[in-house]
Amino acid sequence: MKIGIVGAGMVGSSAGFALAIAGYANEIVFVDKNEALAVAQAEDISHAVPFMSATRVRAGGYADLAGAGIVVLSAGVGQRPGESRLELLGRNTAVIRSIVSEILAVVPDPILLVAANPVDIITHITASISGLPPHRVIGSGTILDTARFRSLLARHMEISPQSIPAFVIGEHGDSEVLAWSGAVAGSADLVSFAAQLGKPVTEEVRKAIDHDVRNAAYKIIEGKGATYYGIGAGIARIVRAITRDEGSVLSVSIQTAHVAGVDNVTLSLPRVVGARGVTADLLPDLDHEEFEALKRSARMLKDLSNSLGL
Amino acid sequence: MKIGIVGAGMVGSSAGFALAIAGYANEIVFVDKNEALAVAQAEDISHAVPFMSATRVRAGGYADLAGAGIVVLSAGVGQRPGESRLELLGRNTAVIRSIVSEILAVVPDPILLVAANPVDIITHITASISGLPPHRVIGSGTILDTARFRSLLARHMEISPQSIPAFVIGEHGDSEVLAWSGAVAGSADLVSFAAQLGKPVTEEVRKAIDHDVRNAAYKIIEGKGATYYGIGAGIARIVRAITRDEGSVLSVSIQTAHVAGVDNVTLSLPRVVGARGVTADLLPDLDHEEFEALKRSARMLKDLSNSLGL
Amino acid sequence: MKIGIVGAGMVGSSAGFALAIAGYANEIVFVDKNEALAVAQAEDISHAVPFMSATRVRAGGYADLAGAGIVVLSAGVGQRPGESRLELLGRNTAVIRSIVSEILAVVPDPILLVAANPVDIITHITASISGLPPHRVIGSGTILDTARFRSLLARHMEISPQSIPAFVIGEHGDSEVLAWSGAVAGSADLVSFAAQLGKPVTEEVRKAIDHDVRNAAYKIIEGKGATYYGIGAGIARIVRAITRDEGSVLSVSIQTAHVAGVDNVTLSLPRVVGARGVTADLLPDLDHEEFEALKRSARMLKDLSNSLGL
Amino acid sequence: MKIGIVGAGMVGSSAGFALAIAGYANEIVFVDKNEALAVAQAEDISHAVPFMSATRVRAGGYADLAGAGIVVLSAGVGQRPGESRLELLGRNTAVIRSIVSEILAVVPDPILLVAANPVDIITHITASISGLPPHRVIGSGTILDTARFRSLLARHMEISPQSIPAFVIGEHGDSEVLAWSGAVAGSADLVSFAAQLGKPVTEEVRKAIDHDVRNAAYKIIEGKGATYYGIGAGIARIVRAITRDEGSVLSVSIQTAHVAGVDNVTLSLPRVVGARGVTADLLPDLDHEEFEALKRSARMLKDLSNSLGL
Ligand SMILES: NC(=O)c1ccc[n+]([C@@H]2O[C@H](COP(=O)([O-])OP(=O)(O)OC[C@H]3O[C@@H](n4cnc5c(N)ncnc54)[C@H](O)[C@@H]3O)[C@@H](O)[C@H]2O)c1
Ligand SMILES: NC(=O)c1ccc[n+]([C@@H]2O[C@H](COP(=O)([O-])OP(=O)(O)OC[C@H]3O[C@@H](n4cnc5c(N)ncnc54)[C@H](O)[C@@H]3O)[C@@H](O)[C@H]2O)c1
Ligand SMILES: NC(=O)c1ccc[n+]([C@@H]2O[C@H](COP(=O)([O-])OP(=O)(O)OC[C@H]3O[C@@H](n4cnc5c(N)ncnc54)[C@H](O)[C@@H]3O)[C@@H](O)[C@H]2O)c1
Ligand SMILES: NC(=O)c1ccc[n+]([C@@H]2O[C@H](COP(=O)([O-])OP(=O)(O)OC[C@H]3O[C@@H](n4cnc5c(N)ncnc54)[C@H](O)[C@@H]3O)[C@@H](O)[C@H]2O)c1
């Protein structure tokens, strides 16, 4: 499948690099208002290709997106130190609006994969202005937070993160919810599982992991100015679920009719992702506290949408 | 890592083919008392290699196993139509005894991966006669039954089997236990998950899946005389967990000190598998009925061991 | 991409197993006149899937091929000990005729991938009766012989077969031609390359390799009754070139307008394979002897076609 | 295998990201004098892991390299716009000296993989000061230039770069030599191959490709400030050749006893790379002009070494 990537900054290029290494795309086209950057990224990644796959990588204009099955929206600006994800909003909304109409002029029925932050709001806007069915406008949402959650659990328990199907849901941001109570590995609930491994999830451990998942981005931004490898691989993972029509359960963000008592809100839940985009939504088993937290997260996003007149 | 495969029949060769395609082994050496067969399998698989990986594949004698990190025991005879797994026992025990001493003479500290049936008993014997620590003598156990369970659930729910971490435990055989009650996907318990997908796990569905998991081998044997691709890939999967030191949770069979009130019995549980072999065992969340079934399975295996004087 | 496999014997099932392990297909449908066999192969392979990819594997009738991008033709009968590839012809031609019309009724514009032997003749017939453009009817041809050639060279030189781009061309059979003189690795011609490695390609080595490439199938058949892993992986390799639109150079067989002075003959040359099938043919650098051998191979195939009234 | 990466800048982190995605390493440890950066890179990449492999990624001090099989040297500073590779030398030599002794104190017998520029000189120095056998101190050399060459040829001929085994040799820098005359694909020499494809390698095409290979880095640096994805994947490719003991032919730089009449000089040739490092060197077929160019490149590197008193 041909994949378009609009926004050839660190996130877009990391996604393209991951796609080329893993061989998930037949062709990648980068579009960026900074044309020299798009060309440089395409060249740099195309020099990785001879070692790995047969992916064709190049830079182009919107017209070169013709025939793409998926277009990734990674244009915008990274989070600055101290900046909240929602503060990024103003800077990114305008960018997305102009891009979406350019894409749709060339690719009438794409799956749009939104990575630009604040990803839930941008996904909401993208779905609305594109007129595409919501299940074809997929925000990366908490896919990254879920990866962080699993990565930390893996490190604590000294097992493979692939063996820990735990999820983070809600907003990709401060109000997100770690779905501890439904989390299970090896068909034992996570707490029992960890205890059996001799690595109990004490209240302290739990708090530390909760804190680290929420603050992972801030910590990375402090050290290197921005985050991009994790999300780049996350985008590649979603692309694989679509191009291989996997029906994989991934925590991604789409416009959702009802969740936790809130209507028409865009946030992340575990969802089934395949060739047609998202085909089903799942509500994890949540305890009272988690459910209330999800409600607050949904409410917050809804209020924000409302206040923006979306 | 160099991998030895003793028994170059359909199971051993399918495992070798899977290893070569996936690139999980640097070198594969087949040993079989039927030397011409070992040579033919090695040649056939080595013709697959130029398309896929740089694995070196050859046939040899026991001396050629020197330096192997893992030796797969797939010698023996396949299940005949109508034959129970336990009936195979007599035919396979003698074979294993002679093989193990040959291997240990050349590879002093291998991880042994037992596929020969009845796999739990053969694994028990292998651990005993080899004198290796039990966590380095790993039976493929219910890894295949677990795959069948996930495959059927995936088909029913129309999602990817990788998104369904459900397990089968106990004996690889008629008394095995499908651990339904701890099974969870997307952080929702399996039943709720399936219902949300509009594919409820009715009593009927459950019975059908239970029946099909238990009878998968019989059905395949009816159609093609033996089963080998599933178990071949299962062996390759265990090998990957070891060579990449993954710490993956896989349902495999090892000598276990206590399970469900039974001492020193060899059966499958979800276990953590990495470079050192099995590093931890897990008991899934089981309801009363499942626990009783596991007890019966353990009891049955124990009685059999006892009756064999093991 | 959805892949159909008509003929669920050892070759078809090995191809399906390789596809599922490598994750090159989204869906595989087996069709065989022996329905129980097709079901058994699909089940066995589907039990490999949970360890490897999200490929859906099932058995079906021709109607279930709807939507397939590629259909593999592996129906027929394997080579018996002592039987020449051409003697297989009578047994396989009739089978193919009936199958092709069934496929085209459901999939109007497939790429057909022919593995049935004698593969050059069967490919010729398939292209003719299907009315498809010749570049969409691809015989596996000498892809397997090329793999054998590289595998033997790799073993002799103790380097990776992926670093040896040598080719076998002409008939998949006794008259095939090892293109020694154009063979180059590391940008040095093969003979110089091997000498530099201290593994000279003496006349003796050359004869031994030539002999072993030509007799590989016979040797394997002696040891195990039939060959299937090599060709199964070869088919998977061609499928990858198509589904990923690679433009890879592979030695495959298609109806060719002119080669070595012979018109409209179906044999193998290195060809460029991508999403549209074969997009270009290449004539390797051949010395006089090799060119004459290719001519003889082409002539022989042409005479055979003529004698069959094709 | 455990891989150390000293220098967690863009090159080191791109290599680590590629390794984690492709699953070539069991464990990656980043060391950087900027500890916060090493931590940030390790965290960012570890969030990619749950989607891809079971690689453990973390930051540490030199002591944490204990047990590593390969240590990548990517510390130093990137090329600034307008800066020649050799001007980087002063800035990078001192860095390497201090690093090497720290590594050897912990890992007595590593394979060192040098990426720091000017890579040939730094590799020469590293081999000398480490006292390791030269075949275990491998500079990435022209592996990247070779990838660029293949990538441009692939684009021109519209075929897969994996099907074009052409090499760049000599210095990784302005004096490097494109080994056109020995280049062959599909067992036809490259020029004939391209002509057959209807994409002739005219003098103009040849000049353009030569120019673009030589100037690829400058062009990318202009657009994005530095190059890293190509070299990151190149490092991962060398790592794979070692960990899987492939015996792959790669153009890498090591101290070489004699080349083109120059003694003890460090530059790139196609070399066989496997578990023990480089096991053989190859001199491509070169025409007179190419051979003279290689001589000049070797002479230049030798003079530079001499002038530095190495
Ligand atoms: N979803 C997540 O989990 C996640 C994680 C990290 C970053 N992000 C977000 O991804 C986005 C990209 O981050 P980055 O680090 O790559 O930023 P970046 O600044 O490196 O790249 C952004 C690119 O977008 C381009 N761009 C801006 N306006 C454009 C327009 N109108 N048309 C085309 N291109 C345009 C810029 O030229 C720049 O190259 C940001 O919104 C960031 O917050 C999301
Ligand atoms: N664990 C599972 O899930 C599972 C699944 C399928 C089959 N199996 C078992 O795997 C084993 C192999 O099955 P198969 O289908 O490959 O059988 P097979 O008959 O095709 O192959 C068995 C091979 O073992 C060889 N052999 C016998 N005695 C030997 C000895 N003393 N030394 C060396 N080689 C010897 C035979 O020559 C033969 O090639 C059987 O025990 C079968 O029941 C296990
Ligand atoms: N191209 C190569 O390099 C290569 C290598 C090995 C084998 N082969 C050829 O591949 C073919 C298959 O070999 P195999 O070992 O799998 O044989 P096999 O006997 O195991 O399988 C052939 C299958 O075709 C089925 N079949 C027969 N007639 C059919 C029909 N009319 N419709 C549907 N299915 C039908 C049979 O039921 C059987 O399951 C043979 O022609 C063999 O010579 C080619
Ligand atoms: N071989 C090639 O083909 C190729 C291609 C591109 C870049 N490079 C070279 O790779 C090197 C790294 O480039 P980059 O873009 O990653 O630069 P960078 O500036 O992003 O990273 C260099 C890192 O090295 C660290 N470092 C410096 N001194 C150190 C010390 N004493 N100990 C530990 N860490 C130290 C710095 O803190 C920094 O994080 C440069 O020499 C560059 O020229 C080589």
CATH topology-level fold name of the largest domain in chain A: L-2-Hydroxyisocaproate Dehydrogenase, Chain A, domain 2
- Mind summarizing the main beta sheet of chain A? 6 strands, parallel
Helicity of chain A, in percent?
A: 40-55%
Q: What is the end-to-end distance of chain A?
A: 33 Å
Number of distinct beta strands of chain A: 13
Bound molecules: nicotinamide-adenine-dinucleotide
Residue share in β-strands of chain A = 15-25%
Number of distinct helices of chain A? 9
Count of the domains of chain A: 2
CATH-scheme architecture of the largest domain in chain A? Alpha-Beta Complex
Mean pLDDT reading of chain A: 94
Poorly predicted regions of chain A: none
How does the helix and strand content of chain A classify structurally? alpha/beta
CATH homologous superfamily title of the largest domain in chain A: Lactate dehydrogenase/glycoside hydrolase, family 4, C-terminal
Would you write up a description of this structure?
The structure is a homotetramer of 310-residue chains. Chain A is an alpha/beta fold and 310 residues long. The first copy, chain A, has two domains: 2-139, Rossmann fold (3-Layer(aba) Sandwich), CATH 3.40.50; 143-307, L-2-Hydroxyisocaproate Dehydrogenase, Chain A, domain 2. Chain A has helices at residues 10-22, 35-46, 89-106, 119-130, 143-157, 190-196, 203-224, 229-243, 288-307; strands at 2-6, 27-31, 56-59, 70-73, 111-114, 137-139, 168-169, 177-178, 184-185, 188-189, 248-259, 262-274, 277-281. In chain A, strands 3-2-1-4-5-6 form a six-stranded parallel sheet, sandwiched between helices. The first copy, chain A, has a three-stranded antiparallel sheet with strand order 11-12-13. In chain A, strand 11 (248-259) and strand 12 form a beta hairpin. In chain A, helix 1 runs parallel beside helix 2. Chain A is globular and about 55 Å long. Chain A starts with a strand and ends with a helix. In chain A, 66% of the residues are buried. The model of chain A has no long low-confidence stretch (mean pLDDT 94). Chains in contact: A-B, A-C, A-D, B-C, B-D, C-D. Chain B binds chain D through residues 23, 26-27, 53-55, 244-248, 275, and chain D through 23, 26-27, 53-54, 244-248, 275. The site of one nicotinamide-adenine-dinucleotide has 33 residues of chain A, from helix 1 and helix 3.
